[in-house]
Structures are given as C-alpha cells and as structure tokens.
Fold this sequence. Notes:
By secondary structure, this protein is an alpha/beta fold. It has helices at about 40-45, 110-115, 120-130, 145-160, 170-175, 190-195, 215-220, 230-240, 255-260, 280-290; strands at about 1-5, 15-20, 30-40, 55-60, 60-70, 80-85, 95-100, 100-105, 140, 160-165, 180-185, 205, 225-230, 240, 270-275, 295-300, 315. The strands form three sheets. Strands 3, 5, 6, 7, 8, 15 and 16 form a seven-stranded mixed beta sheet that branches.
Amino acid sequence: MRAVCFSAFGGPEVLQLEGLSDPHAGKGEIRIAVRAAGVNASDWKKRQGLMDQGLPQTLGYEASGIVDELGKGVTDVAVGDRVFGFCADGAAQAELAVLTSYAPIPPTLGFDVAASLPAVIETAARALDQLGVASGMTLLINGASGNIGGAAVQLARVRGARVIGTSSLAKLETLRSLGAEAVLYGNGMSDRIRALAPAGVDLALDVAGNGILPDLIDLTGGPEHVITVADFAGAMRYGVRFSRGDDGRALYVLSQIGELITSGRFKPSAVQTFPLGEVAQAHRVGEAGSTTGKLVLTVNVHCEQVGPDRSKEHGEI
Length: 317
C-alpha cells in the first residue's frame, strides 16, 4: 500500500508517498480500505520535529473507509461496512489503515465529512467531561466558531447547558445557528459577556489559545473552572487544566454522534479536501490558517489496494 511518510524533519516538501507493507488488524481491531483521512495541526508539528523524534514517520490518526479485515474477537462490524474512527499507530493517511476505535458512518454522511469527525468530537467531549458540563450550567467557550469550538457548543447544548461563545464578527451568525449566544472578540469582551450573564458563568473552555485565560478565570471565579485545549504555557502560568488525551479519552462519542447528526442536533463542520498525493499542499493551507473547515485527504477508490509492482512506488509529493 501507499502511505504518507517523511524521513527528515522540515517543511511540507519532506513529505513522501511511500510503498509500505500492508498493516493487519490485531485483536479487537479492524482494517479499512481508506476513503478519507483527517489532517490536523499535530501532523505539521510532527513533520517539523516538535513532537516525536524518531524517523521515519507516518501521519494520520483519524480516517473513514470500508472494513476489509477483522481482528480476533471483532463482532460489531462486518467486512464491507462503512466506518470511521481512530488509528492509534498514526498511519491513517494511507490506502489501508488499522482502526482501534470506530463506529458506523451515519448514512447521511460522506467519507470526507466522516473522516473529519473523530479528533474534533473527542477533544470537545473530553473537555466537557473534564469540566463537568451539565444541564442548567452556563458555559463560556472562547473560540467557539472553529471546528472544535463548534463541536463543543453543540455537544454542550445536547447536555442542556447554556452556551456563550466568542468569535470574530464574520462568524457570529454561524455561532448563533449552532445554539450559542454569540459575543464578539476584542476589547470589552468581558463586559459583553457580563451583560449576558450578570452573575458570571459557571465554566469556561478555551479553544482559541489567544491569551485570555486571566479573563476566563475572572469570569468563572477561579482557575479550577477553566480548561484549555490550546494554551499549554498559559495553563502552566495560571493554574488552569490543559486537556490531554492521556487524561482519558472520550471515545464513547464516536458511537453517539451518528444519532445526534441524524436527529439534527449536531451539524459537522465543512471540509476542504485534497487527494492523498497533495498532502503537502494540505499542510501549506493548514499552516497558513487559510481554511475555515477541516482539512481532509481523499483516497482514490481504485487505488485502495495496490499490487506488488505498485507497492514499490514512492516519490516527492
């Protein structure tokens, strides 16, 4: 099979499409013929050498596709099923991938949108769990109009929480359409929030990482009421919890999201797609911050499994 790899740290030009051995599903796992794979900021951080230091490396932790191999003990899906989920070994941007956590794709979704969901909804649900968001609470989400922020707004509303979200002027109406009370970023933001919630807010989630943790602490009454998924340095400085996947993942949300989408209570973000061979361009777009949706790589249906001669192909993308 072909997979996105790199053997040196650097810019997008180090990315290669390499022929690798086909992976196989272990106990409790499934293998899919990948139709689409999500691209995240962690991908270019890895490529730059800011995370894992070993070389060579593959990329991708989320994908969607068709089940083509079942690991021992798997009985909840069958070969041929459409699924999406997480690839724990970080090799989802490939023609074949092994998923360790997965769920059926909602019937109304295409593969591209399904591949955009796992990291976004898990991050949002995990943060809400760690904050203890529940019915009747008022939650402030800083950066609520992005992919994770928008997911957090909707999942919090499902829990019965009141949500106040901050965004730029251009995104205020979008934010309102997701069920949040929208507040403009910038000078006077805290005053605008207090006008909506004179008694303050119960909890705050920082998705933007734009340096306003002190304001969130003031609005909620203490750092123990605030979580950030975007500002590690600020969390250390102000005693705010930084949400990590190794704190315990909210994988249950994979199996719940289908019903929420079907019932109209959750609307996925838009996606911007690139063919697998254009992964370098996807990185350039992502690093430039020039997209408003989730970046997704698509795999040609005719190239999901390659023959012995083609598996040796590789080259700069």
